[in-house]
Amino acid sequence: MSSAEINSSSTTIAPLKIGSRDKSVGWYTPTLENITEAQRDLLESYSHIAPNRVIPHILEVRDRAWEIHPYPCIGQLRFIDLAISRSPSYPIVLQRLKEGASLLDLGCCFAQDLRKLVHDGAPSENLWGAELKGDFLELGYDLFRDRETLHAHFMEADIFDTEGPLKQLEGKMDFVEIGLFLHLFDLAGQTKACERIVTLMKPQKGVLILGQQIGSLEAGSIELSSGSKMYKHNVETFEKMWKEVGEKSGTEWKVSASMDTGLGINQEQRTWDDPKSRRLVFEVERTS
């Protein structure tokens, strides 16, 4: 997106300059006072970055990324958010990966969650990362300093390209993570993306999709100045979408979803956004 004017039925928000490298925008966080214990452990113990260099290193890589793709997720340093480790099923996912299961991080950005899995003992050979912007994959190697040691499989891929690199994974994944990804599309696009994700999963009960995205207390479409639309779910509409996906694909899925004030919403960092925005966290398990 180059710029976006977000309108909803109840709120009109001033034009956004998403795509601008202007660092005065609300989604560019100029400093980083502290990081979590898990983030520090990953960068010190896995990436072997000196303690006094961790935060400067993060900011330096972020500013390089900002010059390439100045998206809100980059400005707000979401690429160090180890979201997968907070998922309720994380211990199960980790154990099964150790036993040979496979996981795809779809829209992986810097693939920070894959690094967390490896640091916690998952074999990197069992991990896949797909990202539309290949620059992010390269920056991930620079951030985590593991170009020579990480054996995860990365690809530059478009979820809607049925003949693209993702085709090789059809029917092979035990787990798919989709973080801050689905909300980029309108409802039809999200449904289509989820149908494609189903084709990447092993055709059996128990395969699991997990992740997070921006949702809303009042679900609905948001029109962008480009003329495209994105859709923010609440729990009910997210469940309804997966029911439709199941009907179209001949499968059934159990949705466990909730909304909270993560992603800076609780700190009122998203001043450009609709005040009804919330983080939607989910796990979607195939039941038949």
Into how many domains do the coordinates divide?
1
Succession of helices and strands: HHHHEHEHEEHEEEHEE
What is the CATH H-level superfamily? Vaccinia Virus protein VP39
**What's the CATH first level?**
Alpha Beta
Under CATH, the topology is which?
Rossmann fold
In CATH, the architecture is 3-Layer(aba) Sandwich
Principal-axis shape equals globular
What portion of residues is helical? 25-40%
β-strand amount: 15-25%
Main structural class = alpha/beta
The separation of the N and C termini measures 37 Å
Summarize the main sheet: 7 strands, mixed
- Strand order in the sheet with the most strands: 3-2-1-4-5-9-8
What does this structure look like?
- Strands 3-2-1-4-5-9-8 form a 7-stranded mixed beta sheet.
- The chain has helices at about 35-45, 55-70, 70-75, 90-100, 110-120, 135-145, 185-200, 235-250; strands at about 105, 125-130, 155, 175-180, 210-215, 220-225, 230, 255-260, 275-285.
- About 30% of the residues lie in helices and about 20% in strands.
- By secondary structure, it is an alpha/beta fold.
- The model is unreliable at about 1-15 (pLDDT under 50).
- It contains 8 helices and 9 strands.
- The chain is globular, with a radius of gyration of 18 Å.
- α2 (about 55-70) runs antiparallel to α6 and α7 packs across α8.
- It has a single domain, classed as Vaccinia Virus protein VP39 (Rossmann fold), CATH 3.40.50.
